[in-house]
Amino acid sequence: MKFRNPIVPGYNPDPSICRKGDTFYLVNSSFEFFPGVPIRESKNLINWTQTGYVLDRESQLPLTGCNPSGGIFAPTIRYHDGMFYMITTNVSRMWAGGKAGNFIVHSESPKGPWSEPAWIDQMGIDPSIFFDDDGSCWYTGTGYTEQGQGIVFFQLDPITGEILSDKKIISLGSGGKCPEGPHMYKKDGWYYLMLAEGGTEFGHMETIARSRNIDGPFEFNPAGPLMTARNTNGHPIQCTGHADLVDDINGNWWVVSLGTRPIGTMTHHLGRETFLARIDWVDGWPVMRDDGLMQLEPDEELPAAETVQPVCDDIHCDFTKMDRLPAVFSWLRNPVMDNYNLTGSGLLLNGTAERLSTPNTTPTFTGIRQTQFATCSTAVLSADLPEGCSAGITAYGIHTHHYDLLVTRRYGKLYAQLRKHLYDMEMVTAEIPLADDVKDITLKITSDRDFYYFAVDTGAGFVNLGSAMTIGLATEITEMMTFTGTFIGLFAENGLARFTAFDYTAKWEGAQERHY
């Protein structure tokens, strides 16, 4: 049956997948956002339910002062002998103190609670683990030699993080830059080592090597990469790589990988997303269908196909009837949770002096990942803002690149504003006064592939405040090439704001209309 890629849309990169029985489990990188490492489950590889996060406590995930695209890189999830394991890197720990940032946690249930981190004395990123037939656990991740970056290998205690053998470099890659994201598998007496190479940009690729011995030497498939879009500028899915393999209960094999849906020539703003493709085994090698190209609408025999339901990204929140936010909401770095309160009157955001534009801090902000090009987001904000407070809804990339539709009180008067921040330039590009007797204000952001559109309604109909180009939030044009993607979020600055509702609707690839 046909399904739509990406299977997890929006900023959800570096997928790793495992299976217990007939249920699949998927994790993704989370970088500077909290909680860390979203975890999802599925019976059919298409309908994914986010059950929570692996790292949901500050003791597991210290992010204070974390740079944009710092924090959590490339988790791997594995299930072995009644226990789930997740191994990853907090690069901010590594950058800040010169300490190894790799750690592993475990839990008997994917829903947690997960253990405190067991830190591993190994520098580098993208750690993975492999359990051999005798139950021994083996680590692979990036390491460094005189020849450059390679893949380091050693035996690991997955509970304590203790290194149990000498370290060895087992591969320098097939020739592409930045060999990383290693995963090891075993099938029919062969050990397979799969790598991401070429950098996580438009030259990305996934390569595969094999050996009869767990520590090599490894021979790369002479047919070339398992997956890449590097030679196909017009293909709608680019930057594919950083993949993981899994089999289903029917003996079929699948690959999940990151990829991007460009908005123009070599630019994207939704982030690196999670895609799915079928794998065949040919002459002892895994081979991806369609010549290694991810497709928007593959036609494959899915596991548990009878359970497949239409996929919907929509979110509807009546904050006056909720006691907690849905799991899809995230915060920047380690939030001060006292600044977020759900009461019978709505969601109260206590804004501080830390603004969306303040670098490496924790503004009062919570949001969801933008999942499609064509979207419509609305937030209902109470007009009872204190003097000097600003609050509203934002399309947020990083602190230097965001578009904010907000309400502010200045000298006792309420105004609605469209505020844009690009690089070191912040400007209010539109402002309208609001009536003194207004009670509730609806703020709306709509989007298509090329633009965001901003409008405000105080009860007499929406008034357009302007538009902004989506490319302004593209990772390739930010001050550094970021690894995240656009959030649609709620925020408050310098005072208490009350939101009563938030709604988000999305249309899948193909919707080109500018308003709906």
Structural description of this entry:
This protein is an all-beta fold. The chain contains one helix and 37 strands. It has one helix at residues 91-97, and strands at 16-20, 23-27, 33-34, 36-42, 49-55, 72-80, 83-90, 102-107, 118-119, 128-131, 137-145, 148-155, 168-171, 180-187, 190-197, 205-211, 219-220, 227-228, 238-247, 253-260, 273-282, 285-288, 315-318, 331-332, 340-343, 346-351, 364-369, 374-382, 390-398, 401-410, 413-422, 425-433, 440-447, 451-457, 462-469, 487-493, 495-507. A hairpin with a 2-residue loop joins strand 25 and strand 26.
Topology:
Elements lengths: L15 E5 L2 E5 L5 E2 L1 E7 L6 E7 L16 E9 L2 E8 H7 L4 E6 L10 E2 L8 E4 L5 E9 L2 E8 L12 E4 L8 E8 L2 E8 L7 E7 L7 E2 L6 E2 L9 E10 L5 E8 L12 E10 L2 E4 L26 E4 L12 E2 L7 E4 L2 E6 L12 E6 L4 E9 L7 E9 L2 E10 L2 E10 L2 E9 L6 E8 L3 E7 L4 E8 L17 E7 L1 E13 L9
Low-confidence stretches: 511-516
- Major sheet characteristics: 8 strands, antiparallel
* Beta-strand residue percentage: over 45%
| Rg | 23 Å
Distance between the termini: 29 Å
Bulk shape: globular
Q: What is the tally of helical segments?
A: 1
